[in-house]
Amino acid sequence: MEKDQDKVLDEVTSGEYKYGFVTEIETDVIPAGLNEDVIRLISSKKEEPEWLLEFRLKAFRHWQTMKMPQWANLKIPEIRYQDIIFYAAPKQKIAPSSLSDVDPELLRTFDKLGIPLEEQKHLTGVAVDAVMDSISVKTTFRETLAEMGIIFCSFSEAVKEHPTLVQKYLASVVPHTDNFFASLNSAVFSDGSFCYIPKGVRCPMELSTYFRINASNTGQFERTLLIADEGSYVSYLEGCTAPMRDENQLHAAVVEIIAERGAEVKYSTVQNWYPGDKEGKGGIFNFVTKRGICKGDDSKISWTQVETGSAVTWKYPSCILRGDNSTGEFYSVAVTNNYQQADTGTKMIHIGKNTRSTIVSKGISAGHGQNSYRGLVKVLRKAESARNFSQCDSLLLGDRCGAHTFPYIEVDNPSAIVEHEATTSRIGEDQIFYCNQRGISTEDAIGLIVNGYAREVINKLPMEFAVEAQKLLQISLEGSVG
Amino acid sequence: MKNDFLLQIKELKASIDNKEILKGLSLEVKPGEIHAIMGPNGSGKSTLASVLTGREIATVTHGTVTFEGRNLLEMSPEERAREGIFLSFQYPIEIPGVSMVNFMKTAINEQRKHRGLEPLTASEFLRQMREKKELVEIDSALTNRSVNEGFSGGEKKKNEIFQMAMLEPRLALLDETDSGLDIDALRIVANGVNKIRRPDTSVIVITHYQRLLDYIVPDHVHVLYDGRIVRSAGPELALELEERGYDWIRKEAEVSAESWTTGQK
To answer: How many Cβ atoms are within 10 Å of B36's Cβ, its own excluded?
Structure first.
């Protein structure tokens, strides 16, 4: 039995990463290394205004005084920042006005990733901003959305076309001093998406950004800013992949969300960066700061993430619940297989009255994977009648992996109700046999059981992506029986 | 030449954790026959179910098992299931988050694939679900929930029979299906088995008590004791066991075992 399970485990963990190809394309690359000149170079390549360069330099100077945080439950080799290329862009006109201006090789790349950039080919109801390395390749459905006053474009374009909005909101949720990786990002960020939903508008389609790392030795530092004005609604998705390479590559993103009074933002992530090989060689270091503020009363921000990729994930999508009656949600499935490590969770900061937060975290560990949930629920003094419910479940496949939970609760208002539930379980041999006895193979049984375990979270994803996420879970874990 | 037996067990010996549980069991089942295997606790009834379904806790050390003339012991558990062997579990397993619909659809389509058939269309599948639910009188709400999660003991057993109805096995093994059932549930479960059984479906009823056999009337009753079948007869044997208990069997078996060993010397 043991032997069979080992065999299946081996088969499963040898599942190939489907997106590991490299696009051969001429790339505009700056020399490796980081100093003020590099930052000026990035800023000038993007033709940025002076205030933005000043912002970058301020962040860089602050970053130089900082040290990489050591508190996460992660083993990370030293990252040599002077060896990293901080800007790489496929050579093409920035912001091509039509598809015919986009390099066909780029179109083929995104086609291959299942992200066709021709609007008529795309899933109806999804607008895409496609980002390769440091720049946005194409944003679809811009015109359709613009008719409703919705701005959806790359960050670089937003800087040019909507500078007041960008200047008003940039770093308003994640200041340039926030943490080591947020400061680094503020100094060198390349591209990302910008989105503004005007008052009272319900965005009629899913907005999404697809991030692709292609160039080697390059870091990706995207910046996303999402503003939902009063009474508006938007559902936003991001996906990401990278080629298989032996070296580790750095990805340090910042996402900021602002929800004004009565606005609702749903932000979903399917993170599938290259996780490294079976021996733990290569893979993306994923250090991400995501934070939203429920600024106005009755607003709501909901994070859903399915994290299956990356060698190391360090990520805590959080909500600042400032408006009264505002709601924050965090739904997460994080998978670590082979030698992957994840330290992920959320922070729910209750400031307003009657604020509510829900945390559902499902960790899945297989192989030698290490999976940590780290979460903070903080209820400030004035947050009358705040409520939180947290549920942290861990599922272990095999006996060489680990699951860890680090919940922090700080309550300064006695009327708060904070609940925390946690479970750790294994996929039982009896569950697998039960499936076998109904004609279901062990691999499929694991897929069923894992998807069942993660269902509560998967159900929060928009439908098209829920199906993708289910398949992804199955592929990431195929055959890891415990 | 194809023989007449659906299942043929010869001189089967099997151990769990190096302890021999089955000590030379032989049994032959023809298509359409109902066999009851009765015996006291620890006689090897559940081990037999484990061996037949390929559960790896039991190791076969001797003997052969053929199913439709093929070596059953070489098949994986899922292959046996796809070939038409169904076990109604004594303790059905809960699988949180996996809906009965999804579970059943996966199972049925695996079986169909194995038999070279196309997957069922969604509407055909749902039609079958509806039909079979009525047959076994299972509450509709149950099939909308996760597999066995939060089901009562009786609901779990009904759910087993519902799955049997969906999968239409050639050979159904009912492992202590009567345990934990009140009399009404017992009747529903037993009637369900009778209704879904086709003329060539064979059933092995593994039970401690006779009461299930009032509803599912066996062609043959076997008494399993200490890893061997020590007595086989018609349905009247079940009644005798109900009346007299297992002690007399135990005594007889011990006597014959003694004389058997003496005979060898």
So the answer is: 25
